[in-house]
Putative aminotransferase (Aquitalea magnusonii), 443 residues
Amino acid sequence: MNPPDQRMVNAFDPATADSLPQREQALIRRRQQALGQAYRLFYQQPLHVVRAEGVYLYDPDGQPYLDVYNNVASVGHCHPQVVDAIASQAAVLNTHTRYLNDGIVDYAERLLSTLAMPGYQAMFTCTGSEANDLALRLAGSFTGGQGVIVTAHAYHGVTSSIAACSPAFGDGVPLGPNVRTVPPPDAYRGNAQDVAARFTRDVQAAIADLQRHGIRPAALLVDTLFTSDGVFAEPAGFLQGAVDAIHAAGGLFIADEVQAGFARSGSHFWGFQRHGVVPDIITMGKPMGNGHPLAGLMARADIIDCFGAQVRYFNTFGGNPVSVAAGMAVLDVIEREGLQQNARDTGAYLKAGFEALAGKHALIGDVRGTGFFIGVEMVSDRDSKTPASAQTTRIVNALRERRILISATGPAGNILKVRPQLPFGRDHADLLLGALDAVLAGL
């Protein structure tokens, strides 16, 4: 079976626009005229949203949609404390980062304290793509290498250098000649007891291939929950051998925490902490400002010093006063509202609910993940583990019809990507599980 076109996984087909209400048809025509054809809309029937609050989005008719996907608003859509922080700071000062200002220093110190690892410094950008792009520049400067190792269906961003390290884009975006891919640490389709050893061997083989072609390894770059590959979180600790391998080759380990960080795993604040490894560089984005454009990285001071000795770096508005005010408010909310604990406890409740549904519906082949990042893999045959890609598309769109928003991931687009905001509660989990039960029963 050929894999689905990743440009169209859970995407609206403009050829079907005539089936939509006139209001949405008109808006889609305006959107295509103004924004062009490269953008994609979710769902066979695109969702028109006008406001949001907490874990809900609302359409123009006031209908609520339970949001189980958009981790950008990590502490909930339009959280009052974050909104107040943005508005208050915007009324006082917002300028670039080449003036002295307390805010960026206060936030950097607070962020670095979450690592519990001395000797790291922070650099700020506006997007996660920029953060990963900067991380590769740091790695190249420090190691003198250019070789990058990523997983086979990874997504790390949209800049030229990072898109070339993001095989999830498919054949339309060629990988760089300095990029090597390794299979993800898949315990479902491989021997669960061999995940760590297998992943280490694959990374070692990629290192050897780079060296054989005269390319010095610079970095192993992984999303620490392997979210685009299909969500692979277990067994905790499997990353250590691969990290040791890249270090032995003179390269660095870059932990991409754009999706896995900020308490999402429940058990830890950062995804890499689950594995007991120490990254050289940690990148982050999206959830940092709860939707405000704030991103960045934390890296060993010697790596940043090496880069700074060669390059006069600045990012005009990366870490501007309004953005860091939003970031500080997000950290306050996570701590004050106990959202890491909620991700751990409610995430476990939700995962157990999916496992119970797997006992009723043979279409569910595997349930995996941790905290508030869960992958539910759909297969048409449990013995052969054949991806049920078409059925997954139907499930995603049937849930949308029931006003529950979710998406799919993985190379075959057959894995439900469950990624709710951190305030998601048991009552919301019950709504999702009940709706999925009904949808599966109706297939």
Remarks:
- The first strand starts at residue 51 and ends at 53.
- The chain has twelve helices and 16 strands.
